[in-house]
Amino acid sequence: MTGVTGLYNPFIENLKIIKYIKEVIVSRHTRHLSENMVKHNFKNLEEFAVLERQAYDGQLDFNGFPAAEYRYFDRIQDIGYRSRHEGLTREQARSERDKALKDYRDDIDALTGNLNAARQYTESRVRMGALVNEIYKEHSPLGKLRLALEFVELTLHEDGFARRNLSGTYLEVSGNE
Questions:
Q1: What is the CA radius of gyration of the chain?
Q2: pTM for this one?
Q3: Is 146 helix (H, G, I), strand (E, B) or coil?
Q4: How far apart are the C-alpha atoms of 25 and 68, rounded to whole Å?
Q5: For the chain, percent helix, then strand, then coil, each to nearest 5?
Q6: Alpha-carbon distance 132 to 3, whole Å?
Q7: Would you say 129 and 10 are in contact if contact means Cβ atoms under 8 Å apart?
Q8: How far apart are alpha carbons 45 and 171 in whole angstroms?
Q9: Are 150 and 131 in contact (CB under 8 A)?
Q10: How far is CA 150 from CA 132, 174, 177, in A?
Q11: Distance between CA 30 and CA 117 in Å, rounded?
C-alpha cells in the first residue's frame, strides 16, 4: 500500500497485520467458550483454594480451563485419587501438591514472559512503521541517519544502539536536525 509520498508504506501494512493477529487470537481463545461456562478468577486465592479442594475431591470439571490451570488441577485431582484409593500419605500428598503448585507458577511466569515479549515485539513493529514514515518525511541526511539507527535499534532489540553509534558525530553536537 502506498502512503502520502506515493511510496510503499510498511507502517500501514504492519497495522493491518497486527489487527488481523489480534482478531485471530481473540477468536481462537473465545471459540471454545460457551455462554453457560463459568469464568474463574485464578488470581483470587479464596476461589483458587475452593477450586483446588473440588479438584482434590474429584468434583471439578476443568476441561475449559487454560493450559496451565488444566495441568495443575489435573495433577491435584490425581493426587486426591491416589490419596483416597492408593494409600498416598498426607505428607506425600502435600509434597506432590507443593511440586505441582511450583510447576504451575513456573508455567504462569513463562506465559507472562511470553506475553510481555509479544507485547514488546508488537510495540516495536508499530514504532518501526512510524520511523519509516519519519524517514520518508525527513529531508536532512543526518536526520535520516539518526532515524535509521533508531530503526536498527528496534530491529535488534538493543537499547542504546543508536546513541552509541551517534556519539562523537555531528548529530550529537548539533542536536536533532
A1: 26
A2: 0.57
A3: helix
A4: 18
A5: 70, 0, 25
A6: 11
A7: yes
A8: 54
A9: yes
A10: 10, 18, 15
A11: 22
Q: Among 13-22, 32-41, 60-69, 89-98, which stretch is predicted with the lowest mean pLDDT?
A: 32-41
Cell of 17: 497485520
Using the structure block, give the residue that is written with the C-alpha cell 471459540: 31
* Cα angle, residue 48 at apex, residues 45 and 51 outer, rounded to 5°: 155
Instruction: For residues 26-39, give the mean pLDDT.
Output: 52
Contacts of 131-135 with C-beta under 8 Å, sequence gap 24+, read 132/9, 132/10, 132/11, 133/3, 133/9, 133/11
**Closest listed residue to residue 138, CA positions, set 90, 171, 95:** 171
Identify the pLDDT of residue 70: 92
Long-range pairs for 35-43: beta carbons < 8 A, 24 or more residues apart: 37/64, 40/65, 40/69, 42/69
What backbone torsions phi and psi does residue 73 show, to the nearest 5 degrees? -70, -25
List of E strands, the chain: none
Sequence-distant (6+) residues with CB within 8 A of 88 are 79, 82, 96
CB-CB neighbours of 96 under 10 Å: 17
Cα gap 5→96, rounded to integer Å: 63
Handedness of CA 8, 12, 18, 24 (dihedral sign): negative
Q: Which amino acid is at 93?
A: A
